[in-house]
Description:
- With 57 residues, the chain is mainly alpha-helical.
- It is 54% helix and 0% strand.
Amino acid sequence: MGSLTPEIRRRIVKAYKKGYKIKDIAAIFGVSRWVVWKRRKRAYHPGKDPASFYYER
């Protein structure tokens, strides 16, 4: 899978909020655990707008 769409990124964060484990989320969306961890971290980073991370380079 190439770059993730903003919708997939939001779904990853929602799945984490619902209590799914990182390894399960990675398997569902076909990404690595590192990608899930990075998305979760960026969504909750204090002082930053989570939506701004959907417009990366």
